[in-house]
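Submission checklist for the structure archive. All mandatory fields must be present; incomplete records are returned to the submitter.

[x] Identifier: Extracellular solute-binding protein
[x] Organism: Paenibacillus allorhizoplanae
[x] Residue count: 494
[x] Sequence attached
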Amino acid sequence: MINMTRKVIVTTLTLALMAPLAVACTKGEKADDNQERVLKIATNMGYGGNYEYFTQQFTEIFEFANPNIRLEIISTMDEKFMNGNIQPGEKMPDPMEKLKEVMQGDNPPDVVMLGYEQLPEIIESNLLLQLDSRITKDKFDTTGIVPAVIEGMKNAGGGKLYALAPTFSSSALIYNKKMFQDAGVDYPKDGMTWDETFDLSKRLAKGEGDKRINGFSFTTQAQGGDLFYGMQMYTAPLQLKMFDDAGEKMTVDTDQWEKVWAKMAQLQKDNVFPAVADPQKQMNQRFDQNNPFAYDDFMSGRLAMGILNYGQIQQLTNANKNAANYKGFTPIDWDVVTIPSHPEAKGVGGSIYMNGIMGINAKSQNPDDAWKFIKFINGDEWAKLKSRSQNMLVARSKYLKPTEGLDFHMEAFYNVTPAPIEDNSKIYRNNPNIYQVQEIGRKLFADVLQGKITAREALKKWQTDGDAMLKQMKENPGAPLQPMMNQAQAVPAG
């Protein structure tokens, strides 16, 4: 009886939320005929096994507003790929090739949902319809879509729109106001360069050992995570590539790579970043019983500035709100500014990802309903409803407001342009072991930070060892790689 009552309440609330959307969807449009039509939506994003989540997120409101349109969800993700049931030596199924095959089949989907990094390959294969003419004809407002999304979509299509994304995830630079006040340093501001940020870090760092306060980190996580991966936010806008477009030759033995690695090593030496701790000390600090937020440098008061994902704000908000329940925790007065950028790529930031990207299949048998669906999901009313989520950023800026009475610089999360897409997806799909090439670089970079080897010597070694591994992959695709660990050991400069 209780479950039935709960179900009635949920259904009533859902209908109450959907009613305005149904009106908005049909207002000003010609009445649809009563004949039922099918709209096929294909996705290789892994939602196939979680149909309920997919419908709640993207389709059930549209179905309510358009009862004569029946949606059919087609997952092109291979079950082996989803469940990880790949046997040793067995070639991993290629979800992109499967998606292309379905899109060009005899019974093609109308709408295609895919990842941001997959978009260029689908566009270049001429598999999506351009949306610009439909946007103009219907006077569909794209001016309210945040730069982080609309510019990212245009960049993927060479300046034209082939897809839209209703939500996105993003990061910003968070800072502790009190630490800046105590140091007599002006707060960070939007549009700073990376060098300006690093200079601020030097002015804020102080103390030793457990009392140490660090100025900046690419993450708020304890001990700064791994600088090799963290600095990818710095290198992405510079379009530094690890290997060529064919995935057959390394491209790291260059002056630009050397400049970045040498700079990071010097900044580490100048205490711009948190010190590299030994694994045991790192583990102890992360699980300090006397500090409920030991795993987070910013929340533990050990970090003045750090890169924070929007989804982490709720955690910080809850901690501040319940500070009295956490022994030794003092509420943090904070705000955010845009992620720093390079002078040669002003306003271009990393760590932005579009969610729910959808386009119209070039072979769609029902392109009008496909556009109607995409227009609805990316429209004003849908954004208004979904903006109530605490962990989701909708693409329409007018609905991006701090929740729960908070007051912070929300624009910092979306007044940026995504870094250009480095479309290596096909290379990674064809060479699942290629991550080991990256691991060689990570180990060599650690040796550079410790002064065991110069940046250029490490990069030359990464180039040589990486080329050997790529050659091995090409000659024996899918075969287990010979261990490269010994080859990756640095030889002290000298």
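[x] Structure attached
Curator remark: The CA atoms of residues 18 and 493 lie 67 Å apart. Residues 1-31, 485-494 have pLDDT under 50 and may be disordered.
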